Predict the 3D structure of the following.
Amino acid sequence: MDFSLAPIAERVRAAAADQTPLRIRGGGTKDFHGLALHGEVLDTRGLRGIVSYEPSELVVSVRAGTPLVELEALLAEKGQCLPFEPPHFAKAPSDAATVGGMVAAGLSGPARASVGAVRDYLLGVTVLNGKGELLSFGGQVMKNVAGYDVSRLMAGAWGTLGLLTEVSLKVLPVAPGEATLRFDGISQADALRQLHAWGGQPLPLNASCWLPGAVVDQGVGTLYVRLRGAVAAVEAACKTMGGTRMDDNAAVAADWAACREQTLPWFTDRAQRPDHALWRLSVPATAPVLALPGGGEPLVEWHGALRWLQAPESAGEALREAAHAVGGNASVFVAASTGGTGAKGLFDFKSAALEQIHTRLKHSFDPAGIFNPGRVAQAW
């Protein structure tokens, strides 16, 4: 254990002995999400730096407190990237999402449906458990079959299983070809049908976003589809798919970044409805248009698999029923009032057996229950 980890490990052991809750925090850019924030802050930003980077092997190992922007800049210098486009959610210039927070949150951007999630690129982790023990899982290769793939448990665990100290990630080259097509005056139902049809063809689909129109009663909106891949494949797809090709690359890139960071007007307009929460509905991509309460239409991403809706938290039961009916789930992503409480219903346990598995995992890694208590489940 290196010198920077020794005092952190000692603090964890002391907290376990005294039953003192610890709130693991990097840049704090995702503090708005989760049931509640409890405990003394355990800041990870001192665990900073690139441990190793092998561009030819498409692998990077980085300490968990490293700012995400630093990692992305390093990869960009070599023409590589994190293809799952993790959101930063930095609200001010001083905010800086960390690599550890990226993994702990497990959130992915617009390309998720095509390229996979954070966990799919997580090769290995080093984590400090609730006993102050430093544990390493996985490695730096994709074909790692030695035991259970424990590393991926950390993606989306929100720090409840332990404090991430180092992660190894698979990276990919930036695609040589890219284009965005716009389809105007298209309804949500027609957009979903078209996306499903394209999904069955050998097209370089990378991301999609359907935005409802300004006049909701008309039932139409705009569909944006991003293509990425070989130049020839992208050019051929542009000729066969139709739509309007958007040529201002800088503006288009900024729009996709705004979609990822939820700064599009559709998201920011929620400020005009302070009683509305931002709901996240994760459903099968083949799910039809859902009858949703709230009086508005959703913003649709991930080729139909992710649907954002602005609605009061009181609509929760109806939203969950609608999502469950098609094999999905619904939860509050940003609460109507995030003053210390965060989003509600982060974990949507569908069975007692699943809840038991989560509880046993929590007890194995953090027997004293000191890490981020109440962040994802009221019971722990």
Residues 352-365 form the longest helix (14 residues). The chain has a mean pLDDT of 91. DSSP finds ten helices and 17 strands in the chain. The first strand starts at residue 22 and ends at 25.
